Hints:
The structure holds two protein chains of two kinds.
Chain A: H1 2-44, E1 50-51, E2 58-59, H2 67-73, E3 76-77, E4 80-81, H3 91-121, H4 127-133, H5 135-139, H6 142-152, H7 158-163, H8 173-200, H9 205-213, H10 218-246, H11 250-256, H12 265-273, H13 277-301, H14 306-311
Antiparallel strand pairs in A: 1-2, 3-4
Helix pairs in contact in A: 1-13, 3-8, 3-10, 6-8, 6-11, 8-10, 8-11, 10-13, 12-13
Chain B: H1 10-37, H2 57-62, H3 71-102, H4 108-119, H5 124-136, H6 144-167, H7 172-179, H8 184-212, H9 216-221, H10 229-234, H11 246-266, H12 268-280
Helix pairs in contact in B: 1-11, 3-6, 3-8, 4-6, 6-8, 6-12, 7-8, 8-12
Membrane topology (chain A): Multi-pass membrane protein
Main location (chain A): membrane
Domain ABC transmembrane type-1 (chain A): 95-298
Amino acid sequence: xxxxESADRKQVTQGRWASMLLLPTLxxxxxxxxxxxxxxxxxxxxxxxxxxxxxxLFEEGGSAGFSNYSDWLxxxxxxxxxxxxxLGSQFWSSMGTTFFFAVVTVALETVIGFWMAIIMARxxxxxxxxxxxxxxxxxxxxxxxxxxxxxxxxFEGIANKLFxxxxxxxxxxxPAKWAIIxxxxxxxxxxxxxLILAGLQLIPDEVYEAAKVDGASTxxxxxxxxxxxxxxxxxxxxxxxALDALRMFDLPYIMTQGANNTSTLSILVVDQIRQGFNSxxxxxxxxxxxxxxxxxxxxxxxxxNAVGAATSSGRK
Amino acid sequence: xxxxRKKFDWGQVRTYVSAVVILVWCLAxxxxxxxxxxxxxxxxxxxxxxxxxxxxxxxxxVFDENLGNHFGRNLLxxxxxxxxxxxxxxxxxxxxxYALARLNFRFKFAVMGxxxxxxxxxxxxxxxxxxQLFTNIGWMGTYQVLIIPNISFVLPLTVYTLTSFFRExxxxxxxxxxxxxxxxxQAFRKVILPLAAPATFTTAILAFISAWNEFLIASQLxxxxxxxxxxxxxxxAGAQPHQEPYTAVMAAGTIVTVPLVIxxxxxxxxxxxxxxxxxxx
Lengths: 316, 281
């Protein structure tokens, strides 16, 4: 059939066009992402220059097998258990801190963001002012946010004065953790709120009106209509934020330098770089795998269809 | 049914109270930064919510070369790094986004997944090898060591946002231009590019803000002469040694933040559309 043939030819020319147009992006991403990652993986199996504990000689290079990985996982430093305070001993506590930050910040941001989104979806005078205001924390660079909240949480700072407390916020473990969490929630809740708001606006008003007529209470309307219908948008937002939170660096690095058990995996990698490229590479590969596994779990088991949201559209 | 006039709408009152809470929560810390930026150092911790002991000294400290602050240089560095990153990401990203939004081809899903995956990539995974590579080839202290990794963070965002914008565009116009005798290239240049300009502009703002805010790579790979503002703010030196120069840091933060906030408020609607485009539709 002639029609079929021309459709095929169209497909072929489109394919050729597409590969030409996509090539620059794919080449750039290959250079700036795939090359470093492959390089990091190769590096992670090499030995760092160090004293050999058995011979007492300084050795450089050579294959390390999986020892860089097992050193982190089992907290070994030159064949012995790492003394407290060294970077090697901090792996599991950093892993715990990273997940603690991720779970708490994402949970808070989801709940507060949902509440903000519901308010912003209502009709009232000044609504556009509120929608503009939530962009302010989002627009401030994280490094500035960190310094700003460091100042707010200073010993003589406004936080202590406002609440009549005398807490050394960035000087001990739990206050420091909460200071970081509060700063992160302030900075990124707006992003969450806007994504949820966009999801809310896709729900037609008629659905709510029908439910009202049927006598559904506010709570029922929320749990039976809003939640299920907004779920796809919500899952994607939570996925984005969770992956962002798992690689958290700027805020804790600037506010506490990772002291008082606030070091995340990303901070640990950066601290390690100057002490040994190759074991830093192993640690960054572990971090990468952790984030990859979390993303996989989200997409596979919780139904966050990020690629689908990106590729499916009204027109084919 | 008798028409009853509503006496008082409690629901509406609750909405307004909530709106005020949101406004205060979002704006108060930023306001506090600006107020502190104008305070005399001796009154750093003055709890008054109004500007007191107003001075411009902190802004002078920020630019004081004698204290080792090179903030003017830092600003130019950030402009250069973020500017070049944005332009490269935009030029390259527009073509990719056009292909993804408009053309049918095999592996489309895989390419989209790869680009999306790249945007979720942890920056630390590339810091170590890049640090070693750039040291080996003697690039440390140059601008390209900041720009190249930055592209890897900004480009996926650009492609992603532009793709979702391009899907909404009236592509029928392109086809009618072709019927009127334009080649595909002409149709793209004369019809589609002007239509795509607003979306491209919005994406440029998002890309620039993202590149401007970059800290991880800049903190590890920049030298004294290429230091960007975000890193400079994190390591600021004040007039007194061994003392956190809070007021000067707040002044620096204000300088970096106010232009961004104005930009964001002016293009508020577009930015919200850009932020939410890919994720929800």
